[in-house]
User: Fold these one by one.
Assistant:
Number 1:
Amino acid sequence: MKGTWMTPAVLSWLQQATGSLMRQAQGPAAG
């Protein structure tokens, strides 16, 4: 069950989560 989580759906969700986290972290710093 190690390589089953590397699916396109999970990868896209991971990308979205990372993007939102980065935006949240850069928000206060940029403002």
Number 2:
Amino acid sequence: MSELVFFLEELSAEAMLKGLLPRLLPPEVLVRYIVFEGKQDLEKQLVYNLCVIIYEWLKMCNKLW
């Protein structure tokens, strides 16, 4: 299973990607959108959100082994 994670500054970027990506990606690719309230909010919360995603990925990998 493949997953793409997008960290976005605003809702309009999410709307654009939701319209475009289904035409470009195979259906088995999971897409996750994490939307922030502007660039400063993204910069402030980015490290925490990356840690959460890495933790979830590691948990999933341990289940596969």
